[in-house]
Amino acid sequence: MSTGATHTGGALWGGRFADGPSEALFALSRSVQFDWRLAPYDLRSSLAHLSVLESSKLLPAETISKLRGALKELQAEVVSGKFVPVDSDEDVHSALERGLTEKIGAIGGAIRAGRSRNDQVATDLRLYAIDHMLAIASQLTQLCEVIIAKAAEYSDAPAPGFTHLQHAQPVIFGHEIAKHAHAFQRDLSRIGDWLTRTSVSPLGSGALAGSSLPLNPKATAAELGFAQSAQNSIDGVSDRDFVSEALFILATIGIHLSRIGEEWCILATTEFGWAKVADAYSTGSSIMPQKKNPDIAELARGKAGRLVGNLTGVMTMLKGLPFAYNRDLQEDKEPLFDSIKTLLVLLPAVSGMIETTEFDRAKMAAAAPTGFSLATEIADFLVRAHIPFSQAHEAAGACVALCEKSNRELHELTDAEFLAIHPSLTGGVREVLTVAGALSSRTTAGGTAPAEVAIQLKNLTAKNGEFIKLISSQHAAFSGMMSA
Ligand code: ARG
Fold first, then answer.
1. What is the pTM of this model?
2. Ligand 1: distance of its center to the CA of 120 in Å?
3. Which of 159, 262, 284, 285 lies 20 to 30 angstroms, CA to CA, from 246?
4. What values do phi and psi take at 229, rounded to 5?
5. pLDDT tens-digit series, residues 310-322
6. Buried b (16+ CB within 10 A) or exposed e, 46-71
C-alpha cells in the first residue's frame, strides 16, 4: 500500500524521516489557513528573540543584521499582503521561516536557535489575545458611554419594573437602561484581571525545558511588553488558561448582549410598543411589507450560543491533557479567533441600536402604576405605622384582591374600604399611591429614586474614564498594539 507521502514536510522538521508526510496527515495538521493572523505577532516575537541572540553574541553580527533586515521586510510585506502563505506551508511559523530563507538563504534558519514552535506559538497567541482583548475592551467602553447617555436621556421617565416578566414596582426607565452598563463594566474589570495573569511571556521556555543557550527570557518579556516571563518552562508552553479565561469573558459579554437583545425584542413588539428601533438598525421582510424586525437584538441573542460553545470546546480540549505541548493545543486558536471576531462585529451594532432607539415615555408612564405595581407602597406605609410586615403584606394583598374583584386600581378604593381592610390604612395612604411618590421614596443606595439614579450615572461615567485610561496604558505597554 502506498504511504501516500507527497509533501516534503514543513521546512521545520523532517531530518529523521525517510518519507514526507502523507496528504492526509498534512491536510489534518495544517493550520496556516487560520493561524496566519498570528503573523504580525510571530514577527514581533522573532525580533525580540533576535535581540537576545544578539546580546548573547550567539550569532555573528552580520547574521543578526541580515535576519533583522529580513524580518522587518517581512513585517511590511505581511501587512501589505505581498508575502502570503503557500499551499505547502504547514503553519504561520513555517511560512514565515520560508519567507526568511527566501530572502537571505539558509541563514534564515538561524533564528530558530533556542526557540521551539511550542514557546513561539504560546507567545504569539498571548500577544494576539492581549491585543484583541484590548480592542474589545475599548469597544466596551464605547458601548458603556452609549448606555450611560441613553440612561441619562430617560432618567426622569417612569416605567413599570418587572420580576417574572410581571409588573412589580415602578422604576425610572434610565435605571433599567443603566443596569447594562454595570454588567459591561464588570466585564471590563474581568479583562483587567485577565491581563495581569496573561502578561507573562513563555518565550525562552523552548520545547519545554528551557534552553542551554544563553537566552534571557526576562529581557525578551520586557521587550515584548509582558510584565514578566514564565516561572516554569513546562507550564510556559502548556498553559492555555489565558485562552479559556478570555473565552469565558467573551462568552459573558455575549450573554450580557443577549439579555439586552431579549429585552429589545420584547419592548419592540406591537403589544409593548415601548421601543422604536431606528430604521438603520432594523431589517424588513421579503414578503410582509409592513415588517420591521429587530435583527440586531436577535443576532445578539443568537451569537451568545456560539460564544459559549467556543468556551466549552476549549475547556473540553484542555481537560485531561498532559502538560507540556501536545498537538491538541492547536485547537485553541479557531474558537478564540471566532469569539473575538464575533464580538468585534456585534458590539458596534448593538451600540448603534441602543444609541438610536427611542422609547415611548407616555406609554411607559401610563403603564407604570398598572398591574397593582404600587401594592408594596401600601405594605411599606403600614410598616411605617409599626405594623409587622407579615400583617402589612396581608392587608396590601386584600386591597389588591378587592380591586381585582371590583375592576379598579388601588387609588380608586374608598377611605372606608381602606379602613375596613386595616385600621391603620388612613387617608394618608393615598400619598404613597402615586408613581412619583413611590419612585422618590426608593432612596436606598442603588435604588430607583431619581437622585440615586443621578449618582449612579455619575459613578458609571467616572469608572468608564478609569477603564479608558487603563486600556491606553496597556496599549502603550505593548507598543501600540491594538487591532480591531
Ligand atoms: N501549529 C502549532 C499549534 O498551533 C504550532 C506548534 C507546533 N508544535 C509542535 N511541536 N508540533 O499549536
1. 0.93
2. 9
3. 262
4. -105, 165
5. 999 999 999 999 9
6. bbbbbbbbbeeebbeeebbebbbebb
